[in-house]
Amino acid sequence: xxxxxxxxxxxxxxxxxxxxxxxxxxxxxxxxxxxxxxxxxxxxxxxxxxxxxxxxxxxxxxxxxxxxxxxxxxxxxxxxxxxxxxxxxxxxxxxxxxxxxxxxxxxxxxxxxxxxxxxxxxxxxxxxxxxxxxxxxxxxxxxxxxxxxxxxxxxxxxx
Length: 159
Hints:
- The chain has a single domain, classed as Ribonuclease E inhibitor RraA/RraA-like (Glucose Oxidase, domain 1, 3-Layer(bba) Sandwich).
- It contains four helices and twelve strands; from the N terminus they run αβββαββαβαββββββ.
- The chain has helices at 5-11, 46-53, 76-84, 99-102; strands spanning 16-18, 24-25, 32-40, 60-64, 72-74, 89-96, 108-114, 126-127, 131-133, 136-138, 143-147, 150-154.
- The strands form two sheets. Strands 1, 2, 3, 4, 5, 6, 7, 8, 11 and 12 form a ten-stranded mixed sheet that branches.
- It is globular, with a radius of gyration of 14 Å.
- The model has no long low-confidence stretch (mean pLDDT 97).
């Protein structure tokens, strides 16, 4: 599916929400899109792994880590898992690690920053919930579009 976020903003200004430009690009796919699956966690990535073990079907996992900069929610192994399970991308309101490994995995990965500390593995958090960050309301079933110009969210597919 070919698109640019600029063209989507021009063509559908009333249908898109623009995610505030807080996120850096880490994955090997700078251009990605898909229906979103939501996950809310705090400094614990056990549920991230559990969801990425399921078939992605080209979806985007949006993880609200509360903006924590204390530990990474995704690293090289989870990025590989996302790719092998068919996820098109990850948007993480938190940190990643293994930056050089992430760049080699053909999955879109956006996060606030990198930090070398790993997260807890207790399995706490909530999947399939609605939440807000970066000026946008995320809910399961919305569609995310990301490229070099930014990240958009829409209530339905636009392309």
